[in-house]
Amino acid sequence: MGSISTTPSIRATLEVLEEIFSENVIAKVLRVAEEALENNNPPTAYPEFVPQTGNNAGRYFLREADFWTCGFFPGILYLLRERAVRYPQVFPCAGHCSENAALEKGAASIQEQLSSLCNPWTAPVQAMMTRTDTHDMGFILQPSLRRDWELTGNEESLQAVLTGARSLATRYVPGAQAIRSWDALIQTDVAITSLKEDCVVIIDSMMNLDLLYYASAHLGDRSLADIATMHARTAIRSLLRPEVRSASSPKSSYALYSSFHVVNIDPRSGKIKQQRTAQGYSTDSTWARGQAWGIMGFAQTYIWTKDREFLTVACGLAEYFLHRLVTAPACVERRVGKDGKTTGRFVPLWDFDAPIEDLANPLRDSSAGVIAANGMLLISQSLRMIGEKEESERFYLSTMRIVTDIIEHCLAQEKAALSIAASGEKKVKVKDVVAGQRFDAILKNATANHNSKEFTRYSDHGLVYADYYLLEVGNQLLRMGLM
User: Hydrolase: present as a keyword of the record (predicted)?
Assistant: First the structure.
């Protein structure tokens, strides 16, 4: 399969995308937000993943509050809050709510309930603004606190974001011209632990540069933006691999790039000491989520800098991502219905080069797909602004194809619904559409880490940042006026 096949009709695509704005989404988020606060308020643990099998299948596993994923569940609450405030046409849900018309008329009470849940989930995140032990400050702070500032004008949230950017900047290593991602990398075959001899940088780090640019603009502190730009240039030379174009490659002028997950840089000379993977299959494989982080991170960097090199790199990473989707083995497709329709081709394998262990159920990473889709939407907007309308449209259509395929293939069929008590009680309650069938995440088939040398491996589950970036696609489309 050498190119993306004809995209579905606009009407069919919009019908699928309405799932992002559905009653099911609001119901699941509200239920988890309330139940996970029981004996956990203020939160010391945050939703991370939902097992698909086993004794705890269907229920969120809560991870320690200082883990890098802690910002995404509060971020999901704020994505819904953004819809309620800015896009009431899709809130509480697109289409009709299932039980009664009172739910649609009760959008204000649902919004009030949602807003009341934002504060307890965000307060511990705000307290992390002074952390200097992690590079993940963008992931931790921006999904909720930046939106709180932008939606409500909460000055404390803005100050937390700005402080967090300064904290992140302390991890910049001048000799390496990079922000240190991890202080150590310890797996069964490696132990990198020296802060003097090593500077470990991962492709994921591109996603935290947006925080530095945002704070730089607010503070008028050019040094923060300069750190971000220098880091991005170091990532290009140390984490990207040029790929040879083939007959099945996308027909465009962009050079293709795959990516390493990890590079170890000498903090004094800036020389590359080692390239490897920590979460992908192997050093030279292309870990799908790492590639997706690169697509979105470089697209964001271009938006701030307007440096065409960053847009070109983002396009090259995206082109290679699409190339690996359309040339994946036939086993990724699953036939649905009686009309010969298939789904699954645009749901990425967890690593594009890993052996497929189960042909009937290839291991995937839906989170990689929705992250890449967000990046491609940014690319599409940027290309349109510089007059490259044909390329812009192609990336937009690719985004739509990825997102619709992920929804059709990975949407959890265990759905939830909203209800208001007949007595007129304002508080919205949540129930399973089919009694006893519950799955807390919106999407399935995400993979956090399947590296064979990792001490903790977990895969094929719901994942909080898969849901976050799925809902962010929806909000991006709303901001673009396309929904």
Answer: yes
